[in-house]
Every structure is written in C-alpha cells, then in structure tokens.
Amino acid sequence: FSLGKMADELDIADVRVFFLADYLIKSLRLRSDKWTKMVQIEDQNRTILDFCDKAQPTLLVFHVNPAGNLVVGTAFPASLKTKACFFAKKLPEPLQRESKEKVTSALNFGDLSNAALEQLQIYVNDVVRPLIATPQNHEEWPDVISSDLQKHVSDLQSQLQVVNSLVKGKILLPYPKYTSSSTTSNGTTTNTNGHSRAHESAQTSSKNGEVIDLKLVHAVESVVIEWSHQIRQVLKKDSAQPLLDGLDPLPSTEIEFWKSKRAHLESISEQLHDPRVGKMGELLDKSKSSYYPSFQQIQDDVSYALDEAQDIDTYLRPLASHFESLETTDFLEAKNLFKPMFRVIGLVYDNCEHYASAPRIVVLLQEICNLVMKQASEYLEPMELFKGEV
C-alpha cells in the first residue's frame, strides 16, 4: 500500500520509518532533504532500523547539530542548542509494521526543549502538582500517603525552582508550601491550595488566643533552614578564593566578583522585603518558634553584606578603566599607567570603609602582579632572550 506523496519523496516504504520521518519533519520544521542526508550515513540508518526491527535500542533521540544536520542517538544528549524529538518504546520489542496505529500505540514520543529544566519545572507545576493537589484523585489513599506525596511534590517544586534560578545565575528563595490558612464553618482548616484537614490536628493558641496552624509554622521553619543554606553559600564567597586555589586571577576578577555579589545580595534583599516574608516572621514570633532568631539573623547578615558589597563595588568601578588600559597597552609603554592607578587604589583604601584592610588590598595587589607578569610573558620571546648567548 502507498504511504502518500511525502513517503514517495523520501523513498520510504516502511510505515514505522515513515512515522518517525513524518513526525520529525513536522515537529522540527525540517526540509525533507535533512532526513535523506541523515539516512545516507550508514551508522545513522542502522540505528533507526535496529530500533524498528530489534528489541534494542528502546530510545531514539533526534536533534539538529551545530552544523545544521539532523542526527540520531540512543540516549538523551548532555546539552541541546535546539529542540529535540524522542521516541521511546513502551516494551523492549520490535515495532509492528501493520499500521501507523500499531506504531504509535507501542511508543511514547514527544518534543524535548533545549531548556530541559524549565520544561521539567512547567511539567511539575502545571501537570503533576494539580493532579496530586486534587483530593478526588486520591480519595482511597490513606491520609499519611496522600500527605507524604504532596510534601514530596512540593519539595520537588522548590528544588526545581532553586536549581533553575541558579542555572540562570540568580538566587531564588522558595516560599513555604502553605502560605496562609483559615478555619471553615465545619471545623476544618483550609490552606491556600484548597485542601482541608481536621481542625483538631496541628493547631495551638498564642497568648492573645489567636489560633496558629502548627503545620504552617513547620513549613515556614523548613523554608528558613533552606534559606539559611542558600544565603550562607552567597555570604561565604570570598574574592581571595581563586588565589587560595592556586589560580592566577587578574584584577578584573576582583571587580567582577563584587559586581556579581552585589547583584545577588540585592536580589536576595528584595525578596526578603516581600510582604509575605514579613508575615512569615510574624508567624514565627507569635508561635515562639526557636527559628525566629535565625530568621532575624538571616536578614541582619544580608543587610550587612549588601552594604559591604555596594560600598566596595562603588569604589572599585573607577579602577576598571585603569586595569583595562594596563591590559591593552604595549608592555614597554605601560609604566606611565601605574602612578595614576595606584593613586586611585590609595583613594579606595582611604575612603572605602569595607575595603580599608590589609587582606583586601593584598588580594588586589596580587592580582595586579599577576596581570603584570602575564603582560611581560606575552611581550618577551624566549628564543629572543637566549639568542645573544648562543
């Protein structure tokens, strides 16, 4: 039987192979010659035929490589520049060739974004979480299993949010699973996700008689712990670390470090001044939580570190043009650049409160020495040095 005009153009008689080609050309918006060029390569063609005729492989992943050619593999690539398509067998067995319906029923297939983390985050937020958050979907489950699964999904959401922000070079503080609660007329407490739980479970009263949801308190405490770890990672970073690691950083590294640290801390500070964070602090205070001092300490530490980073970044920026000139000027002509550069460094030391210490200046001077040695090594030709002695 005929598979149609496109199959004739591609010279494909196998319904299984045509399904793959048809899906790829439409999904990736390819010209048909891209497929033809790929299958002309023996290894690529053999991989596709083995997928159709044998139990293994069970996965095919197609994508366009940097050269603009369609390629196929049997594993997900470590990184993608463009969208990819995957075909995975439901069972490790050859594909039946009777009809397209037989082929599609034996496969899981779809598109894979080049931003896999974002795609996974959207999938968890828009598909997994709503399914788990709907009580009708797990009415027959024990309460313990239902609650535990919801907690794990919530934790996964938070982790994906954090990792995705780190990949983009940002620090994103996740919020607790429950952000508010209220007591309904039938004696149950409802959280912002719309779930009801027994009124008698996990509640206490504050001094003024206000009912406090202990589950909400626990969720906030868990987030405070997570925030503490995230923020400590930013606060403990030191511009001297590359030197301690035995590297040879240049003075531009110092400027970029404080510029980056300032940006991260400004982002964190902005998030900590969100009204929701203020309500979290009020809740911890009312419940006499042992994590309230830690919550306050986080805010104090970020405030101090932000003042430091803003101060240092502001004063170091005028040095950027001096370092850039030193890097781009011919080595023999660079001697006139040092006097004004060190004059500015002296002004930084005199006026920048947070940079006026020996350890800070020593790091900067070491980086300047690295730059001078780099420029000298690039200027000097080893063979020319020894020519006169031969």
UniProtKB/TrEMBL annotation:
Coiled coil: none annotated. The lineage of its organism: Eukaryota, Metazoa, Spiralia, Gnathifera, Rotifera. Residues 217-388 form the Dynein heavy chain tail domain. GO terms for cellular component: axonemal dynein complex. It comes from the Eukaryota. Pfam families: DHC_N1 (PF08385). One of its GO terms (biological process) is microtubule-based movement. It comes from Adineta ricciae (Rotifer). This is Dynein heavy chain tail domain-containing protein. InterPro entries: DHC, Dynein_heavy_tail. Residues 179-194 have a biased composition (Low complexity). Residues 178-206 are annotated as: Disordered. GO terms for molecular function: dynein intermediate chain binding; dynein light intermediate chain binding.
